[in-house]
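so my prof wants the structure for this chain in the tokens format not the other one, which i didnt know existed until like an hour ago. anyway here's the sequence
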Amino acid sequence: MLLVTVLAGCGAEVSIGERRARQVSGADVARAITAKYDEQERTASGATLTRLTCQEAEGRVDATISCTGRNSREVDLAIGGTVTTVGDDGLDYRWRIERAYAPGVGYARGARRIIERRAGAPVLDVRCPDRVEVRVGSTVTCVVRVTRTSIAAARLTLTDLDGAFRLSVTRPRSVGVATTP
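here's what i got, hopefully its the right format
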């Protein structure tokens, strides 16, 4: 399994307590989400949030929470949520990862290992898009340079949010001599 992104079951309910607030600073929201994310993901995959920026949240039930960040596996995240409770001791809210984009180079390395193992021979290069939206069932097409004069297409179908994929590869076809590696 390729561990490119780490999102399995990532979402939580958190509290910002000790005061009743009409507005909660984005920094307070970010600290609360970071603590819960790091607790969940460190256990699941070892990833932590390296950056998280959140907008200020209104202190009312159903107010929207919106954040963007990046984890230690260089996965860019869009996190959203809603305020669930407003009380004398602060706010409670739920959040979840709405979108995630992983580096394509991780998928290229994983695809290359599988292709070389299946073929029993090395390939020159595998190139995937720079950033890959991580969604179960989505597909990513990568270019496999088999030799200097032949390429194939590798199609990766993402099977979970932890980076696993099914791989299919077309037959190599002839192309002109490559001028770049």
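also thought this was worth mentioning. Confidence is low (pLDDT under 50) at residues 1-9.
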